[in-house]
Amino acid sequence: MEVKFSGSRWRQIERGYRRDSDSQVTAPHATLAHMAWVVGIDSTRLAETGRTQAADILRELERSKAPAPSPAPEAGPLAQLEEWQQKVILNALDERPRSAQEKALLLRTLAAQIEAEAARQGATDAPLARETPGRSTS
Length: 138
Known about the structure:
52% helix; two-stranded antiparallel sheet; elongated
């Protein structure tokens, strides 16, 4: 649920009245819940004001917009890389400003490509090479 309204409407709700008509303003439940979400007020605190319907809507917003739990680091093929290798990949992602969500998507895409390539080569059970660049393994 997205609620859009102007800055002047926000100020009217904050003040509790409209100057142009000199009338009282009470925010609708969905609007109040959205405003609370934007400024970081949680549903428990909103419920304390007596606006329980708005608090219920905010509770649903909190549930629906909560970040999805990330898989265990050991679950993916990138987790098998050494720390310096992971840093190289993350630094490459930082060359252009990206959100954490974009970085996660790129890493999942890269992991899927690595897994697909391993499956094509029939080496899904083979451990990843742990070589240091510039050093021979012999």
